[in-house]
Automatic annotation (TrEMBL):
Family membership: Belongs to the GST superfamily. NadH family.
Record has Isomerase as a keyword: yes
Designated name of the protein: 2-hydroxychromene-2-carboxylate isomerase
Coiled coil: none
Length: 200
């Protein structure tokens, strides 16, 4: 087996969180690497945010999240989240780690688990520093590096690449010529990995 999975995802995506550890397990079994690209959702390619959807669709999403979390055995805290800050700036600590030459996927997963699994306020720099430190990183140093001008520039570069590659939402997995959107498509990705790279 050769090649890598290109993994495009957002820290704030609960679906990416639900599928992250399963993605790692699938790729480890297949002997395939993962190239993570942290992004925001891409409206140019057709993404519609949850806030833009009708209330009935929003209600369904939360019901479905709970079902999937139960099936996967993944902790998910959807209640009592009103006081949490916007978690979107948490991308900065992951990009700062990438620019420092550190592996980023484990950090991103730790942040997602803190936010979605346990309702921790990763929009707060002190909280994400603590999460990073617990995951084995120098959290204080990474938070200090978040303000470097090359951090948002690198993030925008990821988004531009994702747009060019036809990505519109999180999580998206690219393997060979195939695109798989959503953690509920990981079965299809696993099947593709079981075939030869030429067929992928």
């Amino acid at each position: 087996m050769s090649g890598n999975i290109e993994y495009y995802f957002s820290i704030t995506s609960p679906w990416a969180y639900l599928g992250a550890e399963r993605l790692v397990s699938i790729c480890q079994k297949a002997g395939v690497g993962i190239r993570p690209f942290l992004i925001a959702n891409i409206s140019e390619n057709g993404w519609i945010t949850l806030r833009e959807k009708p209330p009935v669709r929003q209600k369904y999403v939360f019901e479905d999240l709970s079902r999937w979390a139960k099936r996967l055995g993944v902790p998910l805290k959807l209640k009592d989240r009103a006081g949490l800050k916007d978690a979107a700036p948490a991308y900065r600590i992951v990009i700062a780690a990438e620019l420092a030459g550190k592996p980023t996927l484990a950090l991103a997963i730790a942040l997602q688990k803190a936010f979605w699994g346990y309702g921790e306020d990763i929009g707060d720099p002190a909280v994400r520093a603590a999460v990073a430190s617990k995951a084995g990183y120098d959290g204080a140093a990474l938070v200090a590096a978040e303000e470097a001008p090359d951090v948002p520039a690198a993030f925008q570069k990821n988004i531009a690449l994702a747009t060019m590659r036809g990505v519109f939402g999180s999580p998206t997995y690219l393997y060979g010529k195939q695109t798989f959107w959503g953690q509920d498509r990981l079965d299809f990705l696993e099947e593709a990995l079981a075939r030869s790279p030429v067929e992928a």
